[in-house]
Structure formats: structure tokens, C-alpha cells
């Protein structure tokens, strides 16, 4: 039973194809929450009896369109270096799909920004086209006894497409962003909404970060397709399907152990020289309107206005990581952030103090851990976030058992990190007050809160998250077989 091959499908592969100075194509590893988390799980597989040797394959787009003459070469190095199987696609098709339906329709709708949603038939068509193309490519390698684990909102039609081609294969789907309430979801044209639900229901197990998202999904399947469920289980065309909750964890010790590494120590020293005794607040996000960067800055500005005693004694380290530059809204928000940072620094800076240290760009891993580990406070205020791994990484990086997390109650992570100072990100006054509370929190209380949060993150780490998902998939398949033989 246990010796199965795992096929992972996600929009992007864990690397990007880039051209070097000589014009040769190279694969460059890329990192994000999904890649880091799944990589930890895949590493753990090599030490378990789950797969035969190294039997997993990661399928996805390699991040660039590859000419026919280079495809075979890319395929070979993808396989040998990353156990990956590229889904080749023209950049224009990917652009219409990714910048179109994925990030102008699904992303804003599922993050509760209905006024940002664009309803365009052409981009819906490109979404279908790309999902079908993924299906074709997966069918080149898929075997009936494989486990196929599909990730995220880019590929919601894929489970059903695969099911139609290979009815017996195990299919799991995990959604990394929120699933919205029915009142939001129903804003989609009815045939799109139904097709998306039916697409997802092609899986055996459909996973969400929080209980609420699972319930919203089940509510939508009831209202739009008429499917009743019992504790998340549904019978659909004589097939058992289960929707369930799996809050994604992090690789706790990767962060916790990295704090004392030489590379991090070097970065910490550099930072400490710049900070020279200031209290520090850290903020790290991809550039995205859902991350609530503007309200965060407004809250910080109000804190400075209300608390002159803190001028010259605290600084905000604001890291904004470029993302989805091809979507207009992201450009607009970048301009607004630049302006607000300029305004706040212009209004409050003195000759020897700036209230905000702003970096627009990606930071290497050890610098990230150094940032987490030198900062007295993490200020994380998304307007919506499926989970939010940064908040968990900050907690894991507090090896000294000091530090305070301020976290939006609209992030999935708030369900697990109840010892953080939880705030409503729309309430500037509350953000401002929480910053003061965090900066003045007694060390003993910081330690108590961190201990409880760290214990939870150690217990439900990312490998456990993935293992439980795959285990559930096995249970459901077994139950399905028992049901069929009755
Ligand atoms: C989606 C959902 C859900 C970020 N900047 C740098 C960097 N990162 C790494 C972080 C973290 C990851 O990227 C970001 O994860 P988040 O969870 O915070 O946010 P999204 O990118 O929006 O992820 C989210 C997640 O999927 C997983 O399901 O939690 O809700 O939106 O791991 O560390 N890493 C480095 N430099 C950076 O500048 N090295």
C-alpha cells in the first residue's frame, strides 16, 4: 500500500529558467512558502518507507517560455537536479492566465476585494486552457497507482480533468489562499463558479488552512450544486470526496537552528551596527494589497503621532518583496507605499534617526532570519491571508524567547497563534495601540506567549501537515474501496 509515487503539481516549479551571460540556460532554485514547505516534506520522504527511493516528481511551469530546441535539455536538467517535469507553455498564454484570471479574478475575490475583480471571458478561457494543458502533460507520466497532489488556486479545474482521464488515481488538492464565504463566491458567473467547484470535487481530498474556509467551501457546494455533506464527506457520482482542514506549518528547526549559524550571526552584526540600540519592528511581505501594507503604515504613523516619547528610540524595518509586477494594481500600491514611507520619514526623521528603514527587494534566507531574530516586534497586518507563514517564521526565530508578534485576526495563522496581540487591520487606532503595548510588554510575558506558540509550531510542523494530508487521502481511498465492495 505504502510504496507509491508522489506527483506534485503546482503553477510554478521550485526553480526558474534563466539565461546566463553566455546565453546558456540555467536553472535557479526559487523559494517561497510552498516550495520551502514541500521541499522539507520531500526531503523527509527520502528517509521514510513511503516512496520507492526518491520517487516523487514535481510538475509545473519553469517560469519562461522555452524554444523547441531547448526543451529536451531543460527536461533533462529539471529531472536530474530537481526531480521535476516541466509543463512548457508560451509566455503569452501564461501571462493571460496568471496575470489574468488567477490574479485579477480569483485572487481579489477570494481575498474579499470584490471591487477589484475583473470578469473577462477571455481570461476564463485562458484559465481553462492552461488547466487542460497541465492535464495533458501530467497524463504523460501519471500511473493509476500514483498519488497526485495538486496545489493552489491556479489549478482548480485540474482534479476533475484528471479524474475524467484516469478514474481510479488518488488525487489531493490543497488551497493555499482563503476560500471565501458563499456570498462572495457567488459573485462569479454561475457557470464559472460551478465549474470551479466541480473541478475541485474531482479530488478525493480537498484541503484548506482553516475550518472556516472548509465550511465556506461546503456551503458553496451545497448552494450551487446541491451536495449535502456529513462531516465534510460527500458522495458524488458514487465516489467519496472529503473536504477537511490542514493548517500549514513551517520547518520550525530550519529557522530556529539558523539563528545561531555563522551566516546569520554575520547578518545580525551588520544589522545591530545600523540599529545601534534602537527598538526594532519588522515587517516582511510580498508586495500585495491583501497584505495590508498601507494600513500598517497608517497605524505606525498614528503610533508616532500619539507617542512622542518613542521618537528616536524605535525603527520599522520594512521589507517589501516584488511580486506580480505585471498586474496594474500592484504597481499602484507600490507607488502608494513609496509615498507613505517618504511622508512618514519626511515628517518625523531627525539628523540621526529615521522611523522607517525601507527595502524593496528580496532578501537572502540568513538575512531574513537575522531580521526576524533582531527585531523586538513583528507587525503583520494582512487584510486577508490564507495562512501567513511569515508570522510563524518570526516566532520560530525567537530563540532568545523574547519578541512580540502583532498579527491580524484576518490571517489564517491567527487561529493557531492566539498568544499574539491580535488586531483588526482596518482599525488604525488598534494597530497604533498594539505597537505601544508590544514595545512595553514585560519580558516574562513575551517569553510565556512565545513558549506556547513555539510548542504549537514544533508539534504541527510542515512535514506533519503534508503527512497528515497524504494519510487522509489514503484513508478516504480505503473507505471508498470498502464502500464499493459492499
Ligand atoms: C501563500 C498564501 C499562505 C518572503 N519574502 C522573502 C522570503 N519570503 C518567504 C517567507 C515565507 C514565504 O515567502 C511567504 O509566505 P506567506 O505565507 O507569508 O505568504 P504568500 O507568499 O502570500 O503565500 C499564504 C502560503 O501561501 C502558504 O500556504 O500562508 O496565506 O497567500 O516563507 O519566508 N524568503 C526570503 N527572502 C525574502 O525576501 N528568503
From TrEMBL:
GO terms under biological process: trehalose biosynthetic process
Top EC class for this record: transferase
Biochemical pathway: Glycan biosynthesis; trehalose biosynthesis
Keywords tagged on the record: Coiled coil, Glycosyltransferase, Transferase
Gene Ontology cellular component list: cytosol
Source taxon at top rank: Bacteria
MF GO annotations: alpha,alpha-trehalose-phosphate synthase (UDP-forming) activity; trehalose-phosphatase activity
Annotated coiled-coil segments of the chain: 436-463
Catalysed reactions listed for this entry: D-glucose 6-phosphate + UDP-alpha-D-glucose = alpha,alpha-trehalose 6-phosphate + UDP + H(+)
Enzyme Commission (EC) number: 2.4.1.15
Family: Belongs to the glycosyltransferase 20 family. In the C-terminal section; belongs to the trehalose phosphatase family.
Protein name (database record): Alpha,alpha-trehalose-phosphate synthase
Lineage of the species this protein comes from: Bacteria, Thermotogati, Synergistota, Synergistia, Synergistales
Residue range from the parent sequence: 1 to 486 of 744
